[in-house]
Each structure stands twice: as C-alpha cells, then as structure tokens.
Amino acid sequence: MVSSIFIELACSNKSVWRLELLTVYAAITYRASVSELSAGESARQRRKDTQAVRRRSNPQAGPSSLRKASD
Q1: Closest C-alpha among 29, 30, 28, 23 to residue 4
Q2: Per-residue DSSP letters for 8-40?
Q3: Cβ-based neighbours of 52, under 8 Å, separated by 6 or more
Q4: Where is this region: Disordered (predicted)?
Q5: pLDDT higher than threshold 50 for residue 71
Q6: How far apart are CA 5 and CA 69, in angstroms?
Q7: What share of the chain is helix, strand, coil (3-state, %, to 5)?
Q8: What is residue 60's DSSP assignment?
Q9: Phi and psi for 53 in degrees, rounded to 5?
C-alpha cells in the first residue's frame, strides 16, 4: 500500500497540493497495474490447468487430435 506523501516547500500551498495529488495518482496507477498483472497470471494458470487435465484424460492425444475430437 502506497500512501500519499506530503512535501513541504517554501512556496504556496498550491505547489504542496499538486505534489500530494501526483503521489496519490501514482499509487492508484500502480495498484491498477498490479491487479491487471495478477489477473493475467491467474488466466494463464487456468489455461495450463485445463491443458494438463486434457493431457491426463487422453495421454496419447496431441494438439491435432484434440481439435478433431471437438469438431
């Protein structure tokens, strides 16, 4: 979890507010990209699991025979 960071400057309050918003935006973007990556990993794992079940159910079958059986 990334929290917002307050940076105190010897400037106006608007500058401090802008910096704080940028850190919050970066935290939200990072969290979204991590969730997309984990969703992609779980989809990839489901495909591997499905392929493993198909191989176990018919060990002699290659990719072409699986396609013929489904036609």
Answers
A1: 23
A2: --SS-HHHHHHHHHHHHHHHHHHHHHHHHHHHH
A3: none
A4: 37-71
A5: no
A6: 59
A7: 75, 0, 25
A8: T
A9: -65, -40
What tokens were used for 61?
């079958």
Residue for token digits 């176990």? 56
- Tens of pLDDT, residue by residue over 14-70, are 555 566 666 666 767 776 666 666 666 777 777 777 777 776 666 565 555 555 554
Q: How far apart (Å, rounded) are the C-alpha atoms in residues 52 and 69?
A: 17
Tell me the C-alpha to C-alpha distance, in Å, between residue 59 and each of 49, 51, 54, 68. Answer: 15, 11, 8, 15
CA–CA gap between residue 18 and residue 7 (Å, rounded): 10
